[in-house]
Each structure stands twice: as C-alpha cells, then as structure tokens.
Write a structure and sequence with these properties.
two-stranded antiparallel ribbon, alpha+beta, about 30% helix, tt1808, chain A, 2 domains
C-alpha cells in the first residue's frame, strides 16, 4: 500500500511538513515510521547538522544585518500561507518591514529571500522529489519571493534561484543574499564550529 493511500487512515497530522493544493507532503522518514508501526516515533524534520547550520546561518545574517531597519529575519520552519490549502515552509526568511508583522499564524505575505537546507519531504521516487522541488520554487515565486537560496549539505553546494534563472556555487564562494550582504557557507561553518 502506498503512503498516499495510508495517509487518510493512519498518518497523524503532525507528520505533515507542507500542504500543496490540499495534498499533504509528509516529513522525510514518515514512510519508515508507518511501515514499522512505531507508535511513539516522530519524523525527524532536521538532522543535527541541518539544524546547527540553519542556526548559524541565521546568527551570521542577524549580526550582519543588525543595523538595517529595512528587514526582519525569521528562523525555524517559517510557515508561508500562499492561498487556501497551500502552505509551504522555509528554514530562514528575510522579510521587508512592509511585509512583516508579528502573528501566531503563517505569514500571508512573502519574504524577499527564502533559505532552504536540503529537501525534507517524503516521496516515492526521485522524479516526485524533483517535481515537488520545482513546484515549490514556482509557488514561492508566484507568492512574491524574489530569491531562494537552497543549501545542499551532502553535495556541499548552494543553489541561488531567482525568477530569471539559477546558479550553483561551491560552499567556499561568497554569495549575495541582498544588496550589499554576502555569505560564505564554508566560512560560517569554520567560524562557529568548536572543534
């Protein structure tokens, strides 16, 4: 039985990572949990490295942009409500002040820049992973996001995606986030790693 057929009866709502036009996207690892019948097991949204890197990139950006009154940063699984039954999550978001207000709900306004670290959805095939990846990117741009910075930890590359195209960079290359703000993933790792 496929994960999709089991979803209605078995998979708890807390296993849902995102919602695409009313179709749930589950956290990676959900299939293994359901198939093992593990009752008290939770899917792991981020690995230890992903979580650490997310925090350090956010810390670096926060310090870098501390005096800039134009932007607000968020970190975690920032929920973005694109429309009814369509919400996506991003790891770090940089909002213009005009599109930011504190709320206990998902943001209905787009960030300027969205950061993602790796892919977190559960899919049956590599083709479905690629299809969702492309859909998410297109949905975020349609929502109003201007730039997506996707960090891939296994390949140690960064993909910069804009509506005009995409470029790949190694971790040791400075990449532009906004205007005069650049980051270098390798330098951030070296700066904050305590070994």
């Amino acid at each position: 039985m496929t994960l999709e057929k089991q979803a209605v009866k078995v998979i708890p709502k807390r296993f849902i990572y995102e919602m695409d036009e009313g179709n749930p996207i589950y956290y990676k690892g959900t299939r293994a949990i359901i198939e093992s019948n593990a009752k008290n097991t939770e899917p792991m949204p981020d690995s230890l490295f992903q979580s650490w890197l997310k925090g350090k990139v956010y810390l670096f950006l926060s310090l870098l942009m501390m005096d800039n009154a134009k932007y607000e940063l968020t970190v975690g699984e920032q929920g973005l409500s694109l429309k009814k039954n369509l919400w996506r999550a991003v790891d770090i978001a940089i909002f213009s002040k005009a599109n930011f207000s504190l709320s206990n709900n998902y943001s209905t306004k787009p960030p300027e820049v969205a950061f993602e670290i790796d892919l977190k959805g559960e899919f049956d095939t590599p083709d479905k992973v690629k299809k969702d990846h492309k859909r998410k990117i297109n949905q975020l741009f349609k929502f109003g996001v201007k730039k997506i910075i996707w960090i891939y930890t296994d390949a140690q590359i960064v993909k910069i995606i804009t509506p005009q195209g995409q470029e790949y960079f190694d971790w040791d290359i400075d990449i532009e986030v906004l205007e005069n703000y650049k980051i270098n993933i390798e330098e951030i790792i070296k700066k904050y790693q305590k070994n």
